[in-house]
UniProtKB/TrEMBL annotation:
SUPFAM superfamilies, per database record: Ferritin-like (SSF47240)
Species this chain originates from: Flexivirga endophytica
Name this protein carries in UniProt: DUF4439 domain-containing protein
Domain of life: Bacteria
UniProt cross-references to Pfam families, sorted A to Z: DUF4439 (PF14530)
Domain annotation DUF4439: ranges: 187-304
């Protein structure tokens, strides 16, 4: 007989499966069908599946796998419940988009055991690699931001769970995108420099861990502009004065939210450029993960309006 924890896991898994299956069943019941399902008529070319069908199917499968895998996390895990809710919201939206665009909505049953019967650890399920991210760069303009945001949250989750590996193949975006994001990046760096200065020496670890990769990205992106790099402003106006711990957290969340929005606003411009897409979403994922560490609640599509 399963113990109490096993029974709780089975109940959570049943809820996840029912929620995901329900979204598919609801949409399937709307009577939406691809014209490609119709009988073949000689002389009339059969309609091809929508161009985004396959990559969005793969994205949906990945979300189902991750959402289901979270059910095996212990009740004490501080992230599992929030990440599960986030991924369920993403899967629901993805099925809605696929249905309204005439795509077949997948019906996929996921087992939380791997190919060899090993339990899938949701910490590893969250991580999305360079090949998976790069495959999204060719999506149509209307679907690219949504798919990019899902990939960003996957790697942001891997960040906070300790299983993140930076995707290979990323390059600096085009100059126009760099110039659009650079003000928010510089502002965030300045804010964290002030936060560190206002924080006791033995409590600076989180702020320093946030600042270090932001500085590295700024250096690389500014160097890519060469002599055309915009001059840094003489000063920055902080939206929140970091006089207390609570205010420092609020300031951190505010500048990271601005940086996330700046990345999201530019992602469509990287369409078709795999390296630039990976490079931009890497910064986007880092900023998203750091915002969660500073107290922001995981959202399904960070930065998208």
């Amino acid at each position: 007989m399963p113990n109490a924890e096993d029974r709780a896991t089975l109940r959570r898994r049943a809820v996840i499966t029912a929620a995901l299956a329900g979204s598919v069943a609801t949409l399937s019941g709307c009577g939406i069908r691809l014209e490609g399902d119709a009988p073949h008529i000689p002389g009339i070319k059969k309609q091809e599946p929508p161009v985004d069908q396959k990559p969005l199917e793969r994205l949906f499968f990945m979300l189902r796998k991750t959402a289901t895998a979270t059910t095996d996390a212990p009740e004490s895990d501080p992230w599992a419940a929030e990440l599960r809710a986030m991924h369920l919201a993403q899967a629901k939206r993805l099925t809605e988009v696929m249905s309204t665009q005439g795509m077949k909505v997948p019906n996929y049953h996921y087992s939380s055991t791997g190919a060899h019967g090993d339990l899938v650890d949701y910490r590893s399920a969250e991580r999305i690699n360079a090949r998976q991210i790069g495959s999204l760069a060719g999506l149509t303009a209307r679907n690219l931001p949504m798919a990019a945001a899902v990939a960003v949250t996957q790697n942001a989750a891997a960040h906070v769970l300790g299983g993140y590996v930076e995707p290979s193949g990323g390059t600096t975006p085009e100059a126009e995108q760099v110039r659009a994001i650079l003000p928010s990046l510089r502002s965030a760096i300045y804010a964290f420099e002030v936060i560190i200065a206002k924080t006791a020496m033995n409590e600076r670890k989180t702020a320093e861990a946030t600042l270090t990769p932001l500085r590295a990205t700024r250096a690389t992106w500014e160097a890519s502009l060469g002599k055309d790099v915009p001059p840094s402003p003489d000063g920055f106006t902080l939206p929140v004065q970091p006089t207390t711990d609570a205010r420092r957290r609020a300031l951190a969340q505010r500048v990271l939210t601005d940086l996330i929005s700046a990345c999201a606003d530019q992602v469509a411009a990287t369409r078709g450029d795999r390296g630039a897409f990976i490079g931009l979403t890497t910064l986007w994922a880092d900023a998203t993960a750091q915002s969660w560490r500073w107290g922001a609640k995981p959202a399904p599509f960070p930065g998208l309006k």
